[in-house]
Design brief:
With about 210 residues, the chain is of the alpha+beta class. The protein folds into two domains: about 1-140, Jelly Rolls, CATH 2.60.120; about 145-205, Orthogonal Bundle (Arc Repressor Mutant, subunit A), CATH 1.10.10. Helices cover about 50% and strands about 25% of the residues. It has helices at about 1-10, 15-25, 75-85, 105-115, 115-145, 145-160, 170-175, 180-195; strands at about 25-30, 35, 45-50, 55-60, 65-70, 90-95, 100-105, 165, 195-200, 205. The longest helix has 27 residues, at about 115-145. It is elongated, with a radius of gyration of 18 Å. The relative contact order is 0.14. The structure holds a DNA duplex (13 and 13 nucleotides).
Length: about 210
Amino acid sequence: MEDLIENYGYLFEDELLKEIHEIGIYKSVKEGDVLIEIGDYIKSMPLLLNGAIKILREDKEGEELALYFIERGDTCTMTLSCCVGNSKSEIRAVAETDVHLIMIPVQKMSEWMRKYSSWQEFILQSYHSRMMEMLEAIDTIAFLKMDERLLKYLRDKAMVSHNDQLQVKHKDIAQDLHTSRVVVSRLLKKLERDNKIKLFRNRIKVIAL
DNA sequence: ACATTAAGTGATT
DNA sequence: AATCACTTAATGT
């Protein structure tokens, strides 16, 4: 409950906070756990308390592409669109760090929309920011060269984990950016020469935040 | 000591 | 920017 107030207290009225506390299910997720798989039907929506979640798209060959991260105070917009159409998830959500969240049954969604203006505001706002992130993701993929994409990826990653020391392997990055490990290694080397990052085995320190 | 996995690099397309 | 082929370095058993 304290957690809830700390993160959402400024957003929601007391009544709503109380309801969330009563109905929501507090959940703890470990880094790397898959929260939503492509094709899943979603029956509850998550409210992030802390930690970060990575949103991935996948093509028919199983090739991945990282779209964006969501953080504390965010909710999963996929959930919202799934509620509307009662359709399946188009994305995969993987815990980027250990995550604490509250699961809200989707039925409450529309009920609270009518009952609480702060909730309606929150949902609309979060739809908006997710839309913006989506556009940014498109811009990144379409307009940025691989080296710029890579640096942005590293910065985002450092940002959401509140840590400039990233525990990653080159091949994992390659997977997220949908390129090959060799390319990533080369570009990372270049970024290191430009003093943007420092390389170690299984670890990267981001300097230019 | 040996095998395995991660990372670095030249050459080619 | 991708791929191949190979090297070197770090780590596990």
